[in-house]
Amino acid sequence: MASNEPAQMWSTASLPEAGPGGWNPTEESVAAVRGKHRLPKQRTISRGSTVLGVAAVAAMGAGGVATAQGKASLPISVPDMSSVASAGLDTLVAGEDDTAAAPVAAPLATTASSDAGEALRTRILEQAAQQQNAADSAERAAAEEAAAEKAAKEAAEKKVREDAAKKAAEEEARKKAAEEAAKKAEAERLAKLAASFTKPTSNYTLTAGYGQAGSMWSADHTGQDFAAPSGTPVVAVHGGEITSAGWAGSYGYRIILTLPDGTEIWYCHLSSMTKTSGTVSTGETIGRVGSTGNSTGPHLHLEVRPGGGSPVAPVQWLRDHGVTV
């Protein structure tokens, strides 16, 4: 430890002359000359403060550099007074120039500058890591957004397909229901017609059909033949009015029954006519099977002429009105 007492100085003027054998100092010859060349105490304190001030300014300057970089201030280490004294404090007290403090402060400034550079490097690396993390986060967010958009698009397309399939199924069900309703209505209509329409005769066999060619008629067959025993009753297929009854040449005895809608039913080759005029009801007997006119055997030749015009197929017409022959 350095002494608190002021350093003593010696005057060269008081030293004895060296003899032939050289100077041999003694306790009395080297005694300090009190009161001469002694520095004031406050100068010692002033120079010591100068050394400490230079070191503190260097350390604070280094800390200021780190603070200016946006980092927390680095800790300042104050040098040990004993090391400062051993490094040359006595020399400073003895009268060295103030610039002698520089060798003590320089290492501290260099260390502080190195620490500030390391702190700046660390800060740069942290910023780079933050930027990389931000880029990774942005990439993940973009990927998640793209996945969400894709899922939403697929869901929308799926909904469109489901809606289309549902609509098609509903349309198919509607069509099927309409067809079933139409069939039901047709069945009801035929049932009603069956109640009001009937077969023209019984115990028959279908022979020559509509449109069939043959040598017995000049053109294609214009009606349907029902072969049956002679005298078999012939009835009105539907309620109507007898508008004609009598001989008709090649048709033999013929009765014409006109229905409410204007359709004419021709009954030909009759052996007899039991009703020749007036209104008749469905199933009422109007004549009997025969073989009059151009005929090769007993049968009923039946023709159907809508509106009194050209003939149509009797079997199909009867079926359309709920009668199967």
Automatic annotation (TrEMBL):
Transmembrane segments: none
Biased composition (Basic and acidic residues): 137-167
One family name in Pfam for this protein: Peptidase_M23
Residue stretches making up the M23ase beta-sheet core domain: 220-314
Domain of life of the organism encoding this protein: Bacteria
SUPFAM superfamilies xrefs: Duplicated hybrid motif
Chain intervals for the UniProt region annotation (Disordered): 1-27, 128-167
Bias (Polar residues) ranges: 1-14
InterPro entries noted in UniProt: Cell_wall_metabolism_enzyme, Dup_hybrid_motif, M23ase_b-sheet_dom
Protein's UniProt name: M23 family metallopeptidase
